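Now for a chain:

_____
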Amino acid sequence: MELTKSEQIRAGLQKSFQSGTSAKASTVCYGYKVSHAGELVIDPTEADTVLFIFHHFMNGDSLGKISGALARKGIASPTGRVTWSRETISKLLANEKYVGDVVLGKTNVIDGVQVKSHDIGKQVLMRAHHPAIISHELFNAIQQERHKRSRSRLATR
């Protein structure tokens, strides 16, 4: 049975995920830059902002309050905007890259549209792939707090 071109590409990506050779693992996110050797390294200035966001959220600040605080400090968003969106802050708080890990295969392309994958069996976790900005303990506490806040918001609707 012959695979379509799309299926061949998907199979190749999955193979590179499984072998740990995927270039997707080194995709840059806010707080990091790529070294001359192609590895993720911490950007100290941006890392301070990441820590600021995580700590303020953990201390009870809302996404909007954090956005306002960043604007008052004159810290531009990752896209260069004066104000950070709540969505950008929320995605930053959910990104496992800040603990040094990478999860590959989190999305699929279906009919040309990138969608979140719910097939955990096809995802690959690469632990300690690059230097961490925050601890696993803080990250896990943040995820619990995010879940708690989202559940409490749903209950009040």
The CA atoms of residues 147 and 153 lie 10 Å apart. The chain has five helices and six strands. The helical segments are 5-19, 44-58, 63-72, 86-94, 136-155.
